[in-house]
Structure prediction request, 345 residues.
Amino acid sequence: MSLYTLARPLLFALEPEQAHHLAFAALKAMPARPARHDPRLAVEAAGLAFPSPIGLAAGLDKDALAPDAFLALGFGFVEVGTVTPLPQAGNPRPRLFRLAEDEAIINRMGFNNRGQAAGVERLRARAGRPGMVGVNIGANKDAADRIADYAAGVARMAPVADYLTVNISSPNTPGLRALQDAAALDALLEAVMAARPAGGPPIFLKVAPDLEPADVDDISRVAIERGIDALIVSNTTISRPMLRSKYGQESGGLSGAPLKELALQRLRDFRAASGSILPLIAAGGIASGADAWARIKAGASLVQIYSALIYKGPLLARRIEAELLALMSSEGHSVIGSAIGTDQP
Prediction:
């Protein structure tokens, strides 16, 4: 029995945001020694060399408080944020719900963060340390011009990010997902790419799972035309599959195990729509090596996890890596890259 298995009932007895802050305090107190990764797991995507395909999704370390601690836990890369140009408190509490019976989370946080200026300071302080750290950017809820917010975020965060993610897929900022519509997306990506400084980092786009086939085609086309470097598929869902928890009908985005099949299908859709032109990063319902392997074979170069950490514990990335290596060996792959997209027609 692991230490986390023993500690989890105590953490789950706390209100979710209290447990989150307690876990961060423990992480920040740990020595952050860089993790070692098996070279067979190395992946090249979007012009970057990732030591492992297993990443931490945005939303857990919103303010870049502990990226090195997460890298030390075994993640091949960490995505911090979402950070907005100005600090904002987010939505009123309660806004985070633990659906333990479903191994799921519902959140309506609302991009609560300390703002981009604070994020820049923290990331500058880690300059020169090893490890891949991306920055997820968003718009302030009350912004008069959200496209301008994204462009400003690209310009401000580019010097401290290994890559940037344009997050237009959160369901918790009213109207934000409308930026996924073809015309709005084209205008947004035109501004975002123009704001990237010369020699700046790759830019990724994070999309929702709640899309129709025409949306998938439009997003893929616009992203390719505007030179986006990768797509992250996907964010939380506003749909509600059968859930056992009493919190199942709370408003907000659902993540965790119930999202797995929807996120996998959307990944397959984007792979079919974009071919191998756009690198894909899979997120949503990934909790094991088998889950990660299914996404890689469906076309993902990288995967990200978040909610599963709450239920499986902080050593999950290391466990997934070990399981991936075993699956690679059993199916005759000497490197992880040779498995990408092998399940797609």
Observations:
- The first strand starts at residue 43 and ends at 45.
- The chain has a mean pLDDT of 94.
- Residues 178 and 184 are 7 Å apart (CA to CA).
- The longest helix spans residues 260-274.
